[in-house]
Design goal:
This protein has 129 residues and is an alpha/beta fold. The protein has helices spanning 37-47, 62-79, 91-99, 106-128; strands spanning 2-4, 9-16, 21-31, 34-35, 51-56, 82-87. The protein is built from four helices and six strands. It has a six-stranded mixed sheet, sandwiched between helices.
């Protein structure tokens, strides 16, 4: 499972290392740096991942870094699942390019962008490992 953390939304993807592919698995709302913890818990309990990959944008934005750290802390405290950080500096840009020509409404593109970015993060992890 992978999370692409943002200040408004966090995209989620699930996949299998066996075939090194990932699929969109949902989106979690973020308000003032705090995730909808019930939604995070629901997704984790539904998918039962062995490992969680969290995108690391390698930014100096203290608000984004705080949201990422809160998410990781919540997962460690409540689910005891191993977390790995993966460089995701350009995942949202790549996701935008991937969905740009799909004929989707702007609303649907916004919904999918963070989930596709999470897929790219997870597939990057699979490729490197």
């Amino acid at each position: 499972m992978a999370f692409d953390v943002g200040l408004k939304r966090t995209g989620v993807a699930c996949g299998q290392q066996f075939n090194k592919s990932a699929n969109p698995a949902g989106q979690v709302t973020v308000v003032r740096g705090r995730h909808d913890w019930a939604a995070v818990d629901y997704i984790i309990e539904e998918w039962e991942p062995d490992l969680i990959v969290v995108g690391d944008p390698q930014t100096n934005d203290p608000h984004l870094n705080k949201a990422i750290n809160r998410l990781k802390s919540h997962i460690q405290q409540n689910h005891k699942i191993k977390i790995i950080d993966v460089n995701e500096r350009l995942s949202s840009n790549s996701a935008n390019r991937e969905i740009a020509n799909r004929g989707l409404s702007q609303t649907r593109k916004t919904e999918l962008r963070d989930q596709i970015a999470a897929c790219l993060i997870l597939e990057s992890y699979f490729t490197e490992n």
